Amino acid sequence: MDRKIGLALGSGGARSLSDIGVFLWLKENNVEISCVSGCSMGSIIGAYFCAGFTPEHLKKIALDIKWTDIIKYLRLSFSTRSIFNWSRISKFLNEDLGHKQIEDLNIPFACVAADINSGQEVVFKKGKVVTAISASSCVPGVFPPVKIMDRHLVDGELVNPVPVDVAFELGADLVIGINTCRSIHTEDLSSEPQENSFIKKMDDWLGEMLEKFPAPVADLYNKSPLPDFVRIDHRERKFYDVITDSLAIVSSRIMNLKRQFAGPHFMVRPGVGVYKNFDFDSAGEIIDLGYRAMDEVGFELLNFVKGK
Fold it and tell me: Which of 220-229, 244-253, 259-268, 270-279 has the lowest mean pLDDT?
């Protein structure tokens, strides 16, 4: 009797595009995935895959993304709840997944979010796909919480960054985990962006947009020098650096704790730790790193899948 192989896709923003390289490698090596669990951006890519999007199609979508496309979907909220509004991203997701329910997907799927009021983990195994992956992906402070009944839900990275245990709950006998969380190593955090990278363009654009806020708000972003404790390598951290670096520390600690209780799983960590959440202009490189990471452990991974 063949054992069911589950795939747990971690949080990571643009780093999670490496999941596409993972899918390509699995397809080439005839590894059939029976179920998928996801967190944050991993939940979005996982949902698309479970809805029937091929790895090749997902790669084309990712490679077609331009930094101006991302800015188009990042609508400033002008509120105290978050920097950006999720509405345009939700509209984009609804174009492909809006009519789909989790329980009707081609492959069993689940994703995780965090209840910002109670701190509890919330696992979506049924209901509207877009609602679930939106809740799983809304980074607190960057996007507003998703309200479902009396709960306010945010990015699942706060409670379960690579939901291996959820894949077992879906019926997997073995689980392949893909850890695309940001690196917590000092030399990798908030490294200087390339002049033409998306994050640099985004940084400049956001600074200009925030100048429309009252002066104290704009000053917090890029006018006043920051204190030494939020500097690294002589570079000032912006608000998203502080948020994502903080999440990286939290997710690392959670991963260390959950590793003790997980069932039989094989964890793969693509070398994408230095990429930031908005580095979608590096899609080609990130996808290749996902494929390469799988190829480097291919022999061991195939033996794991075959039970050797």
Answer: 220-229
